[in-house]
Specification:
Blueprint: H1 2-8, E1 19-20, E2 26-34, E3 37-47, E4 50-65, E5 68-83, E6 96-108, H2 110-115, H3 127-134, H4 148-156, H5 160-167, H6 170-180, H7 186-202, H8 221-227, H9 232-245, H10 263-297, H11 303-328
Helix pairs in contact: 3-10, 6-7, 7-9, 10-11
Length: 329
């Protein structure tokens, strides 16, 4: 359903209140979205050497072209643009600043849609995925292997074939050979592959220039490689590297596309998501018990007072949900 939604409505990518990193080379933030109008827009454009330019706009209008359904055009208004110097992008003194009343930007979603990679939104996560992200558990489960046949084909192709012969246990290599002959159940192989990949995640950094030749690493992986992280940060890096190596075969961890400075707020937002789901699920029982109490204490001639009290209680309940969401933001 998520893949179908990508094809039918590319506009669904443009969520409000979060940093959108689905488009290669761009990070987009939209403060508020109402129908086809967006407000408080920030667009970061990245090049090979780092940030290329930053576009800030007070508002804008999204225009979709039926002839090009995979393209999104936004006509930005009241725009401030900061363009980094091409030779020295880190030197802020060389940054050029330009203002404009209108500035059109076009995003092509074709490559992203063809890739088949799914980045789940917070509301699409299962409770298990939320719990794993909150605990910062980066280990794979058998169910995280989405496409077992394609994963097996990738492991048999060089240069991964040589790495498998060096890294995987002899029993796992025998299972892989038996799978080629069709004598092993998929769930058994998924369990064994998950154990082998988890051993890699828990070990030293798995980056190898030969294995990752031709694999484009995003802006979150390279800084972690330079830092040489340890402990759970190293496990996160290894999980991200495996997801880059097998983008269509492994499930993406929610925190794999979150910056280091956003980790705490992302985990808090997930805690709020889980709490809200449980509160909404149990609210029907809580309101039933409150309704029974009101029905016993309030006489029939005072029914309007009971209705008013019930509305106040419902308002207080949803007010705290809205307040919690606002505090996280």
């Amino acid at each position: 359903m998520v893949e179908q939604l990508k094809v039918e409505t590319p506009l669904s990518f443009l969520d409000e209140g979060r940093f959108i990193r689905d488009l290669p080379g761009y990070t987009i933030y939209i403060g508020r979205k109402q129908d086809q109008t967006v407000h408080d827009v920030v667009i970061y454009e990245f090049g090979e050497t780092g940030p290329r330019q930053t576009v800030r706009a007070d508002s804008g209008e999204i225009i979709s072209d039926p002839a090009n359904p995979h393209q999104i055009k936004i006509n930005l208004r009241h725009v401030r643009i900061e363009q980094a110097d091409e030779d020295d992008p880190g030197n802020l003194q060389l940054t050029r600043r330009v203002s404009a009343d209108e500035y059109p930007v076009i995003f092509d979603m074709s490559d992203l849609i063809r890739s088949g990679i799914i980045w789940k939104k917070r509301a699409d996560l299962t409770m298990r995925e939320i719990a794993d992200a909150v605990r910062e558990d980066y280990f794979l489960r058998p169910g995280d292997i989405r496409d077992l046949p394609e994963l097996l084909r990738a492991l048999r192709r060089p240069p991964l074939a040589g790495a498998v012969s060096r890294i995987f246990a002899p029993a796992t290599r025998l299972l892989l050979d038996a799978t080629a002959r069709g004598t092993i159940a998929p769930i058994t192989l998924k369990q064994r592959l998950a154990e082998e990949l988890n051993a890699l995640i828990d070990g030293p950094v798995i980056y190898d220039p030969e294995i990752f030749a031709g694999v484009e690493l995003d802006q979150y992986v390279q800084p972690l490689l330079d830092q040489e992280p340890d402990g759970n940060a190293r496990r996160r890096l290894n999980r991200m590297l495996l997801e880059h190596l097998f983008p269509l075969q492994l499930e993406n961890h929610y925190l794999s596309h979150v910056g280091e400075n956003e980790m705490q707020s992302a985990r808090m937002a997930l805690i709020l998501e889980a709490s809200t789901r449980m509160a909404l699920s149990f609210s029907c029982f809580a309101f039933t018990l409150l309704g029974v109490g009101l029905g016993i204490r309030i006489h029939r001639r005072e029914s309007y007072l009971g209705m008013a009290m019930a509305l106040v209680l419902v308002f207080v309940f949803y007010f705290f949900i809205i307040l919690a969401d606002a505090l996280v933001s």
